[in-house]
Automatic annotation (TrEMBL):
It comes from the Bacteria. InterPro entries: AB_hydrolase_fold. This is Alpha/beta hydrolase family protein. It comes from Actinomycetospora corticicola.
């Protein structure tokens, strides 16, 4: 039985390796219902938990800024942030309420600790990651995490298993860059790009899946890709989804890049209008209202994408159709 490989790539403010637990459970349930087959038999699921690459530096910075008295507060904020990414509205409201606190006992000059925590995590991750344009050390360490996850997926699902990626927030930029580097290494984007660094390549085996040749589905959720594209002339060149090799390896399995965004999410934006290349690469900028109804009209919807059935159900539908095509493929090829 051919299985599908699915990877979750998180964004900023994550400090919990269980960040995708709720989303995974939701995808399993929707896939099982739609496909009529147990998701655990058809899918292999993995996360790419890259937060630890920056976490120690950010914690050190916060403690130097806020003093020893703030250490416990930041631990609580980390816990609330992790619960929020698993879909907890209560945790999100706790974060919002804590944002009203102006100062901490013992740290009178450290005003609005929650907002500073958010700035260090949100801007800190983005600034540190994009420093890869000058110094690739941290950039490559993040990509090593994705490489290990892709290797694990190929090992369990199969060397040529079709790959689906769900990438949220800054994670969509990370996933795009990672697969772009793979495609540049294989000559799909011969524009002088450096491609995959040796230390990243060392995490990957020589299989179609690990060369990125089976990338079939990319779902960018609440993505700031449009903002990051400003660094390039005419907003740059997108990755190719699905990879051209996928149809040779698994004819007619399909594939798509869909950019899911909520118009109330100020971090997210459509990407198809960036240029003709993005319009061809991404089949849809899908506007979806995410989060609970009483919160869905605010920018606080940003953490809710992959915990929302309105986002996951269309993804599960695509994967269910792809899985059935894969099971039918051998007989179809023989008959042809």
């Amino acid at each position: 039985m051919t299985r599908l490989a699915v990877m979750w790539v998180h964004g900023v403010e994550i400090a919990d390796d269980r960040f995708a637990d709720t989303s995974m459970d939701l995808l399993r349930a929707e896939f099982t219902r739609i496909a009529g087959v147990d998701a655990d038999e058809a899918l292999v699921l993995r996360t790419a938990f890259w937060a630890p690459v920056y976490e120690r530096r950010q914690d050190k910075l916060l403690r130097r800024m806020g003093g020893q008295q703030a250490e416990g507060v930041f631990d609580v904020l980390d816990a609330l942030g992790g619960a929020t990414d698993r879909g907890s509205v209560t945790a999100l409201l706790g974060l919002v309420a804590s944002g009203l606190v102006r100062s901490l006992p013992g740290s009178p000059g450290f005003h609005f600790p929650t907002l500073r925590w958010l700035v260090v995590h949100y801007l800190g991750d983005a600034i540190s990651y994009q420093a890869g344009a000058v110094d690739r050390t941290l950039y490559d360490r993040v990509h090593k995490v994705l490489a290990r996850s892709l290797h694990d997926l190929a090992t369990e699902a199969g060397d040529d298993a079709p790959v689906c990626v769900l990438a949220h927030s800054l994670g969509s930029v990370v996933a795009s860059n990672f697969f772009y580097d793979l495609q540049a290494t294989e000559g799909l984007h011969p524009d002088g790009s450096a491609g995959v660094a040796p230390e990243v390549a060392a995490e990957l085996g020589d299989t179609p899946a690990e060369r990125g040749e089976t990338l079939g589905w990319l779902y960018t959720l609440g993505s700031p890709l449009a903002l990051f594209a400003q660094r390039h002339p005419d907003f740059g060149t997108p990755i190719t989804v699905p990879h051209p090799e996928l149809d040779r390896l698994h004819p007619h399995v399909g594939g798509e890049w869909v950019n899911v965004w909520d118009p109330d999410d100020v971090i997210a934006a459509p990407i198809r209008p960036l240029n003709d290349a993005y319009a061809r690469a991404c089949v849809e900028d899908r506007a979806v209202a995410v989060g609970p109804w009483w919160l869905g009209w605010t920018p606080l919807v940003h953490p809710f994408y992959w915990n929302d059935v309105r986002v996951i159900r269309p993804i599960a539908t695509q994967l269910a159709m792809a899985w059935h095509r894969l099971q039918e493929a051998p007989a179809h090829v023989t008959a042809g």
